[in-house]
Amino acid sequence: MLLIMTFVLTILITLSMILFIIPILNIHKKLDREKSSPFECGFDPFSKPRISFSIHFFSVSLMFLIFDIEITLVLPTPILLKEINIVSWMISCTFLFSMLILGLILEWKQGSMNWL
């Protein structure tokens, strides 16, 4: 019992020392205005908040999300090939890839991927 009490007391003392030392070591970070400001992609944090952002940034992030979701749908297929019908898998993957390729061609034709 005494060993457990000593162990708990040692842990409490160590934790309290850490809680008092960390704010002292981080004083220089509180003084830096730029590091304490929130970071938002595509925006200058010290300018007017209602400026418009680049549509190219939005379209690239949207394309990334679409292809990221596509990867999560296709990635487990080697494991599932043992359990599902190969014909239905081929039809669904062909439909998925054709929709993605058609969307990519449409974005290319509209010029959303041009940065000039």
UniProtKB/TrEMBL annotation:
TM region(s), chain numbering: 6-27, 57-80, 86-106
Main subcellular location of this protein, as a coarse class: membrane
Superkingdom to which the source organism belongs: Eukaryota
Reactions mediated catalytically: a ubiquinone + NADH + 5 H(+)(in) = a ubiquinol + NAD(+) + 4 H(+)(out)
Membrane topology recorded in Swiss-Prot or TrEMBL: Multi-pass membrane protein
Localization of this protein: Membrane; Mitochondrion membrane
Entry annotated with the keyword Cytoplasm: no
Enzyme class: translocase
GO cellular component, one term: mitochondrial membrane
Key words of the record: Electron transport, Membrane, Mitochondrion, NAD, Respiratory chain, Translocase, Transmembrane, Transmembrane helix, Transport, Ubiquinone
EC number: 7.1.1.2
GO MF: NADH dehydrogenase (ubiquinone) activity
Family membership noted in the UniProt record: Belongs to the complex I subunit 3 family.
Function according to Swiss-Prot or TrEMBL: Core subunit of the mitochondrial membrane respiratory chain NADH dehydrogenase (Complex I) which catalyzes electron transfer from NADH through the respiratory chain, using ubiquinone as an electron acceptor. Essential for the catalytic activity of complex I.
Record-linked PANTHER family: NADH-UBIQUINONE OXIDOREDUCTASE CHAIN 3
Protein's recorded name: NADH-ubiquinone oxidoreductase chain 3
Organism the protein comes from: Cyamophila willieti
